[in-house]
Specification:
There is one protein chain. The protein has a single domain, classed as Immunoglobulin-like (Sandwich). Helices cover 14% and strands 45% of the residues. The strands form 3 sheets. The protein has a 4-stranded mixed beta sheet with strand order 2-1-4-7, with no helix packed on it. It has a 3-stranded mixed beta sheet with strand order 3-9-8, with no helix packed on it. The longest helix is centred in the first third of the chain and has 16 residues.
Amino acid sequence: MRVLPLVGLLLAAGLLAGCAKSAPERTIDIKVGRYFFDPGTNVSLNATKGESLLLRLTSLDVTHGFAITEFGVNTEVPPGKTVTVRLVADKIGDFVIYCTVFCGTGHPQHKGVFHVGG
């Protein structure tokens, strides 16, 4: 008759294991304009390996693109709107952020850096 307490204990242990919380998602607001990402261009966009990020992108002038190839990110950011992108920083290194929508004569230099540290 001692089986029931053991079953209850095993069930509770299983439920508690399922309740383990992952690290919270960090939100970063990024301003996009001709020809910058802030953060990203003058100051790198920084994360730690394994970190979950919610990027809130807002264009200050015209439609821009926001892409980081290694993380599968490629979205358009219309003027005056906020677009959200989720990603997990699962690689270490410096990765190019670039605009994918022609936004003027400085478009080829419209880049930034996404730095993921260990």
